[in-house]
Amino acid sequence: MPVRRPSPKALDIIGTLVRLGLAAMWLIYGAVKFSDPGQTYVAVRAFDILPGSLVGFVATTMPLLELVVGVVVLAGLATRFAAAVSVLMLLAFIAAIAQAWARGLTIDCGCLGGGGQVAAGQTEYPQEILRDVGYLLLAGWLTVRPRTLFSLDGWLGWNRPARDEYSGEPEGT
């Protein structure tokens, strides 16, 4: 029995939902961190990865990068590139959380504000890593298939298939 593949239109709808979900995550996380730069500094410092001279730079630029990526993904502009940047950022976040866990640090990741030292037993490393793996799957989807509805990419004619996926004919016929 042949396997029925989703239609291109269904994939466009799924991609649009994925794009909006990923954009919402970046916009919310970035806005929360941007609204409290002091706490973001505390959260970045708590990971104890960076030299002190870079903590302020990362604590300042990370929320701005998250907001920019969120706006670009929301608009559907250069979607594949923005999704690839998302993949890299999420891999860095997963690695940072995993190293904190492996080193026995007792910190909150600061992903949704807060951050810094917490009491022993208050860490949520497995949940934080699983959450970020979920976001990584969304970003991966858009990296592989960036075509979505209501996007600037579509309006500009980017990410069009070589063949019309709806009819199977070459475009323009």
Give a brief rundown of this model:
By secondary structure, the protein is mainly α. Helices cover 64% and strands 2% of the residues. It has one domain.
**How do the strands line up in the largest sheet?**
1-2
Q: Please estimate the helix content.
A: 55-70%
Question: Which value, in Å, is the CA radius of gyration?
Answer: 19 Å
Shape: elongated
Ends apart, CA distance between termini: 32 Å
User: Main beta sheet, described?
Assistant: 2 strands, antiparallel
Which ranges are low-confidence, i.e. pLDDT below 50, for 5 or more consecutive residues? none
What descriptive keywords fit this protein?
173 residues, mainly alpha, two-stranded antiparallel ribbon, 6 helices, 64% helix, 2% strand, elongated
Note down, in words, how this protein is organized.
- By secondary structure, the protein is an all-alpha fold.
- It has one domain (8-150).
- 64% of the residues lie in helices and 2% in strands.
- It has six helices and two strands; from the N terminus they run H-H-H-H-E-E-H-H.
- The chain has helices at residues 8-35, 37-46, 52-75, 79-102, 125-144, 152-156; strands at residues 107-108, 116-117.
- The chain has a two-stranded antiparallel ribbon with strand order 1-2.
- Helix 2 (37-46) packs across helix 3.
- The model has no long low-confidence stretch (mean pLDDT 92).
